[in-house]
Each structure stands twice: as structure tokens, then as C-alpha cells.
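Is 5-O-phosphono-beta-D-ribofuranosylamine placement plausible here? Inputs below.
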Amino acid sequence: MTTTPRRLAVFASGGGSNLQAILDYLDALGPAAPADVVLVASNRASAPALDRVRPLGIATEFIAQPADGAALLALLDRHEVNLIALAGYLKFIPAEVTQRWRGAIINIHPALLPRFGGPGMYGSAVHRAVIAAGDRESGATVHFVDDQYDRGAVIARVRVPVACGESAEQLAERVLAAEHALYPRALHAVAAGWISLDGDGQAVITDRSALNTQIPASAFPIEFLPAVFGRSSSQ
Ligand code: GRF
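Reply from A.M.:
I modeled the complex. C-alpha cells:
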């Protein structure tokens, strides 16, 4: 790929294992990487995600007032960011940011959206709810971020079967492993421009051939635009 890599900011509130998966994936792609992580930002000054990248010389920022959209926009401008990945970021992104950054903010959620999403649905609460509902299948979903929690257009997902009698912690661990395969690949598709958000708020595949041939294989079957795939017999 010869286009300029996107300048990616990752927002994380916690441990940052998805951040690490993104860093490792982009690193492995070398000069073909569609993005560089230029900033890691957190609403928690002590977030381990920030500690992960300090030795790498990647800029870090503490977001003191996550609801202050103007401050967030200024921060993104300062670092000349042009793509944002939320990776376990627990604060709402203000509407003025999601509107200005339409189609350029993505998030990962540890369930098959639209099930088990929305306010309060994070961390182990998600996996407890899946088990309590008796679902036989969970998974992870990457979606564009709009002005509602976990409601933006779905980019890609991985399904993870729920094992009989397993605990929320066990399910969380297996879903997290799937996330580490899913998130970097979904990010790749968006950063390279092979999937984008259209004017109607739908995710669309703009280069199916690149998507099929240039994203490294994964041990987890990744479904891009699952609703489209569900309708199509050719996939
Ligand atoms: C992940 O389960 C992600 O889906 C959710 O928050 C968790 C973050 O984990 N949004 P980590 O900080 O990447 O380890």
C-alpha cells in the first residue's frame, strides 16, 4: 500500500490489551501498516494503557474532562490525529466530537451488538448478562461511533460460543482473545479505506478484493459487515 498511514489515536481507560494487539499487528505489517499510533489518551492518569506506550515514545495524554468536547477536539488537532480507536474507553464521546469525526471513530464491544450494548454494559456486566440470558453464542463487535452508546454501524464481528456452565470470567477471557484478532483487522479495513461510513450512516465495503486478500488470516473467523454477509449467498 502506498498511501500515507493514518495518524491513529487510541483512547483507553484500563489495561490496554486491545491497544497492545493493535500495536503488535501494525508492527508486524511494517511498511504496509495502514496506521501509526501517534497518541494514547485516557481519562485515568494511572491507566496501565498509558504505561504500555511510554517506553515506545508514543505521546500520551490525560483527558481531565471527558465531557468537554472543545478540549477533546483541540487535543486531537494538536496531535494531528485523523483516526480514533476506542479500546476500553469508558467515557462517552461528546456529540460535537462524534459529529466532526463522523466515520473516523471506531469502538470494540465484547458482545454481539445490538445485544448487550448501551449504558452500563461494560466489563464483566456484559458477560454476566449474556450468561443470565442463556445465550449460546456471544462474541465481539467493532462499530463506528455515533452519538449513542454502542449503536453505530457495525464494521465486523467474531462469534464466540458460550460453553455450558462457564463463568462470566471464563467467557470474558475467550471473548478478549477473539477481540485481539478482530480489532486490528477491522481497524486495518477502516484505516485503509476498504470499509467506510456512507451518508446514510451505513457501513459499506468500498474494496472487497483488498478486504479479502490483504488482511492477514486470523484463527478467529471475522465477519465484515455481518448484516450484508447474512443476506448474501456469495460470501
Ligand atoms: C474490552 O473487552 C473491550 O471490548 C471493551 O473494554 C475491554 C478493554 O480491554 N470495550 P483492554 O483494556 O483492551 O484489555
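Short version: The longest strand covers residues 35-42.
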